[in-house]
């Protein structure tokens, strides 16, 4: 049997303080939205980044 292709989408992590698109991820569809603390180069510190589709 052939393997089924898994649906993968590209999502962007947007800084909540500056609104910059700093990171991109490829992840499976579904599930809840990500909210991670990542480094923002504009403010030079770790800030909250939320998932956003383009």
What would the CATH topology be?
Rubrerythrin, domain 2
The average pLDDT score comes to: 91
- Helical content stands at under 10%
Shape: elongated
Q: Given the structure, what is the number of helices? A: 0
Rg of Cα set: 14 Å
The largest sheet is: 4 strands, antiparallel
CATH architecture: Single Sheet
Task: Name the CATH homologous superfamily.
Answer: Ribosomal protein L33
* Helix and strand element order: EEEE
Q: Trace the largest sheet across and list its strands.
A: 2-1-4-3
The N- and C-terminal alpha carbons lie at a distance of: 35 Å
Please state roughly what percent of the residues sit in beta strands, choosing from under 5%, 5-15%, 15-25%, 25-35%, 35-45% or over 45%: over 45%
Give a short overview.
This protein is mostly beta strands and 54 residues long. It has one domain: Single Sheet (Rubrerythrin, domain 2), CATH 2.20.28.120.
What does this molecule look like?
This protein has one domain: Rubrerythrin, domain 2 (Single Sheet). It has strands at 8-15, 21-28, 35-40, 45-52. The chain is elongated and about 50 Å long. By secondary structure, it is an all-beta fold. The protein has a four-stranded antiparallel β-sheet with strand order 2-1-4-3, with no helix packed on it. Strand 1 and strand 2 (21-28) form a beta hairpin.
